[in-house]
Design a protein that fits this description.
By secondary structure, the protein is α+β, with helices and mostly antiparallel strands. Strands 1, 2, 3, 4, 5, 6, 7, 8, 9 and 10 form a ten-stranded antiparallel β-sheet that branches. A hairpin with a 7-residue loop joins strand 8 and strand 9. Helix 5 crosses helix 6.
Length: 245
């Protein structure tokens, strides 16, 4: 005979879950918040997406957006096509692209970009109702460039870059967190009394070289303003298109 007690237990667990999930922020209805803080037109845009990003980033920072350099970095692995995302910090913007720093040997994103050297970035600045998306190929920075940034990091962060095999499993039966702490102590001992610590060969900068940059300004009734910068095949030249919301 079927075990009705098991069915009853499942029913109790699921009875409190609504049939439709419609997050509504601070509202008490299912309607989404309206975006009313700005608009965006073609004549407001710079010819360069880099200049436009700098303008928007500066505005976000001056408007009190918390850590506007926080960005969702997404990659995919081939041939599976599986996508993974994580939040990182944008550390540099130069004439070539957007630069982040991380471990490029052990991490999931390292595996992804080895098989598929393309990535996307997504910034969300809720306080000013804006987002920016970036898509394009990636390239590693040179050791010299990575060392220049690495030298600016706090000592603990430089030690941590050597000690952490990012994303590798720390098995509890082998000590869990203590395994990491032991590696940190070993690296500290290795560089004891030394201020100049070399950047690990597996760690450094990665630049996303944009082929597309989209600027999105929230508007009422979900009729947002969206403009895409697309490389037109010529060096340093961009085509700008308005997209439907």
């Amino acid at each position: 005979m079927p075990d009705h007690r098991q069915h009853d237990n499942v029913s109790k667990l699921t009875s409190s879950i609504p049939s439709q999930l419609a997050p509504a922020g601070t509202r008490t209805t299912a309607q989404a918040d309206q975006y009313t803080k700005g608009s965006l037109s073609r004549d407001q845009l710079s010819p360069s997406p880099f200049t436009q990003f700098h303008t928007w980033f500066t505005h976000a920072r001056e408007s009190g957006v918390h850590q506007p350099e926080t960005v969702c970095f997404s990659t995919s692995h081939l041939p599976s096509g599986r996508v993974s995302s994580r939040y990182v910090y944008l550390k540099e913007l130069d004439e070539k692209g957007f630069v982040i720093y991380s471990n490029w040997e052990h991490s999931r994103k390292a595996d992804d970009v080895r098989s598929n050297p393309y990535a996307s970035l997504a910034f969300w600045w809720g306080d000013v109702e804006r987002q920016v998306r970036v898509e394009g190929p990636v390239e590693r920075l040179s050791e010299r460039e990575s060392q220049a940034y690495y030298d600016l990091r706090a000592r603990g962060s430089r030690i941590g870059a050597w000690a952490s095999e990012q994303s590798r499993v720390l098995r509890e039966e082998e000590g869990g967190r203590e395994v990491l702490e032991r590696r940190v102590r070993d690296v500290e001992k290795r560089f004891e009394g030394k201020e100049d610590i070399p950047v690990p060969e597996f760690w450094g900068g990665l630049r996303v070289v944009p082929e597309m940059v989209e600027f999105w300004q929230g508007r009422e009734s979900r009729l947002h303003d969206r403009f895409k910068y697309l490389r037109d095949g010529k060096e340093g030249e961009w085509k700008v298109e308005r997209s439907s919301p």
